[in-house]
Design brief:
Layout (H helix, E strand, L loop, with lengths): L1 E7 L17 H12 E2 L2 E3 L2 E7 L7 E6 L11 H15 L8 E4 L3 H10 L3 E11 L8 E6 L6 H7 L4 E4 L7 H14 L6 E3 L10
Parallel strand pairs: 1-4, 1-8, 7-8, 7-9
Antiparallel strand pairs: 2-3, 3-10, 4-5, 5-6
Helix pairs in contact: 1-5
């Protein structure tokens, strides 16, 4: 299973996403989710994407997206899925608003401990880390920051629990990092199965 943890410093936690560019850079998360799950006419089968939100007004919130052919989404409208999921949790306490979607209030360090209990190797993307092709990737969780990065105090507290890795000496967009990681995992044949999605998803969020 491929697992990504996207840490957002700014995305709103109330689901009020009237405009993606003024919702705490929701656009970065949307592009990252698209590149984590979608390929041309296909949806990857073995991906978990943990979107960790620390923006206002009710942080933190975890939105966990797991590969599921029944998830009511398309790469054209992820904003509605995220917004609806947060609103359903915040207003009604619904933790599983849609197939493949889980929402809750989770402490970041408890999330890290959850990964460790599952015997996952936690790889923190860092330009000073070991180049990815020089290490063996096993049972991974990849931690990736937004445009502000992972807060320094958090990085310090988890440094003995993570393996720092790099994809090169250029600072890429978060979504580009995920593209490169997926490309590399495909290259080494790590859980690369996918569903054909050449048909169109249809679903009502009412």
């Amino acid at each position: 299973m491929r697992r990504f943890l996207f840490y957002s410093n700014t995305i709103r936690t109330d689901g009020n996403f009237k405009n993606v560019y003024y919702s705490g850079r929701l656009d970065i998360a949307i592009n990252s989710i698209i590149h984590a799950f979608f390929i041309s006419n296909g949806l990857r089968k073995n991906v978990i994407f943990d979107l960790y939100l620390t923006g206002p007004p009710v942080p933190p919130r975890l939105i966990r997206i797991t590969s599921n052919i029944e998830t009511p989404w398309s790469k054209k409208d992820i904003k509605t899925l995220l917004s609806s999921s947060l609103i359903k949790f915040n207003k009604k306490g619904i933790e599983n608003p849609f197939p493949g979607i889980y929402v809750n209030k989770v402490d970041f360090f408890d999330l890290i401990e959850e990964y460790k209990k599952e015997n996952r190797n936690i790889y923190l993307l860092d330009k000073d880390g070991e180049f990815i092709e020089n290490i063996k990737i096993e049972n991974p969780v990849f931690i990736i920051g937004d445009f502000l990065g992972i807060p320094k105090d958090i990085k310090k507290k988890i440094e003995n629990k993570v393996i720092k890795i790099s994809i090169g000496d250029i600072n890429y967009f978060t979504s580009q990092v995920i593209v490169v990681l997926n490309w590399y995992l495909d290259k080494i044949n790590f859980y690369k199965d996918y569903w054909d999605t050449s048909y169109k998803f249809k679903f009502s969020y009412e």
